[in-house]
Structures are given as C-alpha cells and as structure tokens.
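Changelog entry: the Inositol-1-monophosphatase record was regenerated in this release. Current contents:
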Amino acid sequence: MADQWQEAYDFAVQVARAAGAVIRKAGEEEIKVQTKSSTVDLVTKTDERVEKIIIGSLKEQFGEGTHCFIGEESVSKEEPCILTDKPTWIIDPVDGTTNFVHGFPFVAVSIAFAVNKELEFGVVYSCMEDKMYKARKGQGAFCDDEPIQVSDVKDIHKSIIISEHGTDRSPEKVQKIFSTMKKILCIPVHGLRGSGTAATNMCLVACGAVEAFFEIGIHCWDIAAGAVIVREAGGLLLDVDGGPFDLMSRRMVSGNNRVIANRIIKEIEIFDSVRDDAPIAKK
Ligand SMILES: O=P(O)(O)O[C@H]1[C@H](O)[C@@H](O)[C@H](O)[C@@H](O)[C@@H]1O
Ligand SMILES: [Mg+2]
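Regenerated structure tokens:
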C-alpha cells in the first residue's frame, strides 16, 4: 500500500504543476467571471476546466471507481462532499479565484489525498510564484524539494497572523471578523496579513513566514492539502474553539505551536457555517 500512495503523491505533484501552467496561461487571456454563493464568490471557466483536467488525469492513472473525488467545482454542481474510508482526492483547482480574476499574484492548485478519512498527503502549487509545496504523512514538508519548518516564535507580540474576510458579506459575520481582527491587532501582534488563498496561507505558516492562519467559512478543498503541509512542518491544526480540527467543519486555526494558537483562539468571535458534509437541502 505504502508504495501505491507514493506513486499517487508523485503523480499529484505532476498534475498540480501541469494545472498551474494552464492557470498561468489562462491569466494572460480574457477572463469571464461568474458568481456562485454570493456576488463576491467568483468562478471562471478556468476553475471548471482545471478541475476537469485534474480529476480526468487522476481517473486515468488510478482507474475509474476505485478512488473518490471531492472537487470545489463538482460540489458546486451538487456532487457529494462526503469523506468516506475510500481513497479520496480533495481538490481546489484554483484557490484564490478572486486573485486570479484581478491579477493579484497568489493563486494555488491544492490537491490532497485521504484514506480511511485520514489525510495521507497534500500538494499546493503556488503557480504564479512557481513554488511547489508538498508533504506526505510522516515524511516532512517541502517547498521546491527543500525541507520547511514552522517558526519557533512563542511570543504572540512577535508574531504575524493571517486571516481572510471570506465570501459571506452578511453584516453580522463581517462585524465578527473585523472585531476578531481588531482584538488580535491590538494584542498587539507585529502584523495581520492575508494572501487571498487559504492553501497558500497555510504554506506560509508551514515555512515559518507567519505564525498562524485562522478562518471561518473556508471549505475542505481550501485547507486539506495545507493541513498535511502544516502538520509535517511541525505545526498544528485546531478548531477555532480550541477543540480538535475537523476538516468538514469550515473553520480552522493552523499555527506554529499551541501557545500562539491558544492566544489567537482566545480572541476569535465564532459564527456559524453550514458544514461541508451537511445534506444538500441544508446548504
Ligand atoms: O478562491 P477559492 O477557491 O474560492 O477559495 C477562497 C475562499 O473562497 C475564500 O473564502 C477564502 O477567504 C480564501 O482564503 C480561499 O482560499
Ligand atoms: Mg479555495
């Protein structure tokens, strides 16, 4: 089995790199934009095309029917978003679609693989920067084949924290997001940042550029690959209430260590999000 997953891991890296090249090329042409859950939740033909390319290549390589797929664009067309014990690929073809549309240079292809509901490996290709992040359970995390590690900062006053605004602009949620950010800024921390892609944000935690990233409202495809990369770089993942991380819960804190993560958690104003694996009628 172990060798089989190694082949899958290596193949995921190849597929992510090829997908990133398609995104880069598409960014040079006219981009037609549509919307999904809200007027600021953007999608383009490139998101759909790249997801088809990724899933098509994986099916061709590993055989139709043996593996399951959770892809952002397939789920938006009401394909199931349920993690079972079967080998499952969790894919965000274009993480940072808003960045892609605007030419803001952080866009990632995110591919994760889970077996028995456990994440085995994750690959995040930051395609505009041409940086390949990857990690396999128990084997460390890498950026362009160099090992990466989270920062060793324990003093929150010496930290940079990342968060995002998400795509739900209901005033009550935005109020909570900004109130949390204000409290964190006023701890004070050195700075608050956001790249516009959750996958890249997690890689920034993993390589020690920032101490933590938290968000409520993200989806499993935004963070599955990054989760493996953060853990393998020595970091940790928690729920925003301090409990165990739950991939389908749409909320997460990823941090370099528990001291920093706990300090952030103290300030987070939690709001509800419908779980990724909720029955479609509830979404
Ligand atoms: O660009 P997508 O794949 O839609 O993912 C983004 C998500 O939609 C936003 O809510 C988050 O704030 C970003 O960090 C995601 O990466
Ligand atoms: Mg995404």
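Residues 2-147 form a domain with the Fructose-1,6-Bisphosphatase; Chain A, domain 1 fold (CATH 3.30.540.10).
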